Amino acid sequence: MLLITLSQIIGYLVSIIIFFVIVQFVLGLLISFNVVNMHNDFVNAIWRAVNALLDPILNPIRKIMPNTGAIDFSPLVLIVGLNILNIIIGNLAYSTL
After folding, report:
1. Distance between CA atoms of 73 and 21, rounded to whole angstroms?
2. What's the pTM value of the predicted model, to 2 decimals?
3. Please, which of 39, 49, 61, 95 could form a disulfide with 74 given CB 3.0 to 4.6 Å?
4. How many CA atoms lie within 13 A of 55 on its CB side?
5. What angle (nearest 5°) sits at the alpha carbon of residue 55, between those of residues 70 and 83?
6. Rounded to whole angstroms, how far apart are CA atoms 73 and 88?
7. How far apart are CA 16 and CA 28, in angstroms?
8. CB 91, CB 4: distance < 8 Å
9. Using CA atoms, how far apart are residues 55 and 50, in angstroms rounded to an integer?
10. What is d(CA 32, CA 24) in angstroms, rounded to the nearest whole number?
11. DSSP per-residue letters across the chain
12. Distance CA 25, CA 89 (A)
């Protein structure tokens, strides 16, 4: 029963990280197309906070991945990797029943 609870907690944390990756992606698009302005203190604070949370996770992935120019695939790799981890841990937890 403990493993199932831990699996659910890890799944919840994975969902939170994926949410922040999506926020970073959408905010990056809005900034690059000048929909929102980085001179706005609120936008700047959100951008810096999301990057401060995700950069320690994304930087090791960026070091491993080949340089693809302007497109950064590390958030996609992170989301896929977290989902695979979530599936493995969930299956391990439910196999103990």
Report:
1. 12
2. 0.89
3. 61
4. 6
5. 90
6. 23
7. 18
8. no
9. 8
10. 12
11. -HHHHHHHHHHHHHHHHHHHHHHHHHHHHHHHTTSS-TTSHHHHHHHHHHHHHHHHHHHHHHHHSPP-TT---HHHHHHHHHHHHHHHHHHHHHHT-
12. 27
What are 16-62's pLDDT values in tens digits? Answer: 999 999 999 999 999 999 999 999 999 999 999 999 999 999 999 99
- pLDDT tens digits, 51-91: 999 999 999 999 999 988 888 999 999 999 999 999 999 99
Q: What is the dihedral of CA 64, 69, 71, 72, to 10 degrees?
A: 20
Give residue for tokens 């659910």. Answer: 8
pLDDT band of 1, cuts 50, 70, 90:
confident
